[in-house]
Amino acid sequence: MQQSVESLVRLLESYRGRDKVIRTVCYGSQLVGGVLSRKAETDVSSQRLGKSLLLFSAQLSHCRTVLRLFDDLSMLAYSHSYGTGAQEEDAGVRWISVLTNMADQLYYPCEHIAWAADAELIKVKSDKWWLFCTVLWGTSLLLGILRSLRVLLILKKKLKRHERDAGGSSRSQLRRQMRGEVLSVLGSMADLSNAIHWMPPGFLWAGRFPNWLVGLMGTVSSLIGLIQMSAGNSDGTDSR
Fold first, then answer.
1. Residue 153's closest CA among 177, 126, 169?
2. pTM of the predicted protein model
């Protein structure tokens, strides 16, 4: 028990760890709140608790938006350190990663403008800026999925070449990397489903997700992010 508490404290002491915990609680609250709100017709107490959880989720989401006001430089440092990906063995992985970094970098100023507009700090309409944010986020997620699929193909080929090797350490390492990429695909697909939901009506299933389903998709991706962080597979980018 004490070891678990200490691990949680260490996680909360880091910015990335705290953000992932807040994200998990945010979407988890939306999931439970959405489920309870569906019982509104038969249970008044469930309706009240459901609404409270949805409001709590909205406040946590707003908290994360404010905290991301300070993420531009860290994202810029990550993009600069990656550069054009000269260290990558595969050209496809290299350029997909570069495009992903560009989409992530553009996301932050768009979100800052949308936030400032909602806070009435600047006199512009926030709708189009939130739309830009959603498009950039969805683009980043889609590129991330393509990158992971490309990496999986490369790792699969390497695994076949190592099948006849006497040592099993390299094979086990490749399998761990493959599991990590599979988790990345699943997490990004869950987030992408939400990104499409927040697009303008008429685009695929935009606007059709109930609160509980948005919460479920976000909770799944958040838990995957926590698993990857505990395994040391987290990159320098952030999850929206």
1. 177
2. 0.91
